[in-house]
């Protein structure tokens, strides 16, 4: 096998014939011409065969043996016999006006999943701005927003701080059945969410059967306005978090009143764990604290009684009755540390109790929050919302692979 045959087989370029190879210490330049002579006029659609001019395109391809590979392609410009326009041959392995091949673009995109543009640029030998434009172009190709709405039945809604200290939140919408991101909105305001869902049309709103979110009042209003037929389920994590807040406030008060009491140290996370999940050492620590303060023991086991209510597979009305009796027992014992949680429970009993229907939670959305944070960290903040959205949507959806059909 001669040199040109070797490189022809190695590169596998469609509709191209290699005419020469130049190898240096750092680069490999491969000269080639296109074999397809058919070029259609973009204006009138007539086939052009008369060559008007010739030019050369230098396109970056994947490295070979740590050498940068450049395809030097002889490109013909034709003249249309009908309208007189001058279309130029298009490369089947590179987009128009781009200085890299399709597979080089996919390769760089994969590198940028969790790294900054400047770092990837140094690795692949490209300018950071070129890498940024390349990645954003690839993100737009795989965004596929309409396909994300197909089959969406159970919707998750959650927010994340976009710019710390600025009260600037972005809103994440997820498909709780497939565990994928549907879209990211620039804010979490009621007006913005309602307008967004109404733009999708009545058919989309009617196909939603369940919505899971936290206890943020605008979310509850959006669900009532746009998805009145859907079952609203308040995320159990946020409900339990509010319950734990009262217990933790009591622990803090005990620490302030008795800072030298050894029984109150290293107690925070033990109070949050369910009793049957504690190890022997953790049980000893907890029993020591209970021995010092009996009210803490009472509060802890009242908290423990809350979890089995939502763990039982039962009717929603039965769960509401158990929640009412649990709250009444606390109020009868005049324990005030759960007052804030009980007020929330009384306002949202049914959405909280709806959890027993099929244990729907917003855990998928919380997990995607970590993906957004990782992209923001590697991009040193990324204040441009649209760029952040494109990267998260592409990475959380169908990631481009090097085995893509396009060369």
Automatic annotation (TrEMBL):
PANTHER family noted in UniProt:
TRANSPOSASE FOR INSERTION SEQUENCE ELEMENT IS1557
- Can you give the residue ranges of the Transposase IS204/IS1001/IS1096/IS1165 zinc-finger domain? 39-83
What protein am I looking at? Answer: ISL3 family transposase
Specify the Transposase IS204/IS1001/IS1096/IS1165 DDE domain's residue ranges. Answer: 155-392
